[in-house]
Amino acid sequence: MKLLKNLLSSKKAAIASPGPQVVAQSFNLLVDAYKDNHKITEEESTKREAIWANRDVEISRISAQKEILQSYLNQTFSERRAMIDGFFGSLERGIENGNDMLVLKSMESIIAIAKESPLKSGMEMIRDINDSSVKRLDF
After folding, report:
1. Cα–Cα distances in angstroms (integers) from residue 100 to residues 22, 84, 103, 104, in the given order
2. Where are the domains of the chain?
3. pTM for the structure as a whole
4. Which tens digit of pLDDT belongs to each residue from 4-35?
C-alpha cells in the first residue's frame, strides 16, 4: 500500500508541475488555434456575404424574366383571342352566306391557332433571355 501511495504522489508531482517549455508550447498552440479560428471565421463570413449578394442578383434576374414572360403571354393570349374572335366572325358570315370556302378557311385558321402553343414560344423566349448572344427580344 505504501508503494502505491509513493507511486501516485510521484505521478501527481510530474503532472502538476510541467516545465516552462511545455507551458510555452501550450500557449503557442492556443494562440495559433485562436488565429486560425479568426481567419476561418472571416473567410466564411466573406463567403456568406458573396452567397447573399449572388442570391439577390439571381432573385432580381428571375423577377425581371417573370415580368417579361408575363407581358409576353398577356400580349400573345390577347392577340390569339382577337384572331380567334375574327375567324369565328368569318365562320359565321360564311355559314350565313353559304360560302363553303370561307367556312373552310375560317375553320382551318381556328384549328391552326389552337394547335400553336404560346407556352412553347414562351419557353423559347426564356431561352433567348438567358442567351447572352441575343441582343433584342421582339414580341
Report:
1. 106, 18, 5, 6
2. 30-129
3. 0.53
4. 566 556 555 555 566 788 888 888 888 888 99
